[in-house]
Amino acid sequence: MKLLALDTSSEGCSAALLVDGEISERFELAPRGHTRLLMPMVRELLAEKKLPPADLGALAFACGPGSFTGVRIATGVVQGLAWGLDIPVVPVSSLEAVALGAIERMDARDETGIAVAFDARMGEVYWGCFASRAGLPVALAAEQVCPPEAVTLPAGPESWCGAGQGWHYRSDMPADVSKRVVTIDDTLVLRAAWVARLAAIAYEQGKTVVAEQAQPVYIRDEVTWKKLPGR
To answer: CB–CB of 106/113 below 8 Å?
Structure first.
């Protein structure tokens, strides 16, 4: 399988190329550099593997939630590439991808809960809760955006860890949540390699869309996205 994954949903900009089970990645912290960096990263990865774009079998991207502008950048690039190459797209939740990163970085054992929090601005957080099962995140509840004092942990896991920069609101979260989540990494930034890993699994399960259906997920209802002209 040959899959290209992109992420611009946070301050990190990254691209990852999965070729027959091996992942190559480019990553840079550049909050305002996504537009400038993303396509050079893609070209470098393809050149490194001597892989023509036409040989790609699928594209993937972190579809959000996250930075509105950032999510739109990856969405537009993926839509354009998928349309031109006539290949399917795998949208991957940004929260789920960070949960995978947390499982790997924090060595979470099976059935550990992973509570992912992103700073959603306006005094709110994007919130997603997952369980580690066979080294992969499994969603335990619907993703949401809410004030930090309104977050909750679903039933199930006895032990929890937290990931994502939204955890700087920990002091505003309910006491039950902050007490149960013992280990926290609030420096974890999404990487396209995690998106690629989850996308490869989703691809095998048939969870793909065509170019015009590759849409960002904002969670906030008042934010809308218009597709590229003519899509």
So the answer is: no
Buried b / exposed e over 170-188, threshold 16 CB at 10 Å, is eeebeeebbebbeebbeeb
Tokens linked to 152: 């909750």
* Residue pair 89/58 in contact by the 8 Å Cβ criterion: yes
Other residues' Cβ atoms within 10 Å of the Cβ of residue 57: 14
Q: Give the distance, in angstroms, between the CA of residue 68 and the centroid of all CA atoms in the same chain.
A: 13
List, in sequence order, every beta strand (DSSP E) within the chain: 2-7, 12-19, 22-29, 58-64, 89-93, 113-121, 124-133, 136-139, 144-146, 160-163, 181-185
* CB-CB neighbours of 28 under 10 Å: 13
Using the 8-state DSSP alphabet, how is residue 186 labeled? T
The predicted model gives 68-79 an average pLDDT of: 96
pLDDT tens digit sequence for 108-142: 889 999 999 999 999 999 999 999 999 999 999 99
Q: What is the pTM of this model?
A: 0.94
pLDDT digits (tens, 9 = 90+) for 160-187: 999 999 999 999 999 999 999 999 999 9
Task: Considering only the C-alpha atoms of the chain, give the largest distance between any 2 of them, rounded to a whole number of Å.
Answer: 53
Q: Enumerate domains of the chain plus CATH numbers.
A: 2-94+190-213 (3.30.420.40), 95-185 (3.30.420.40)
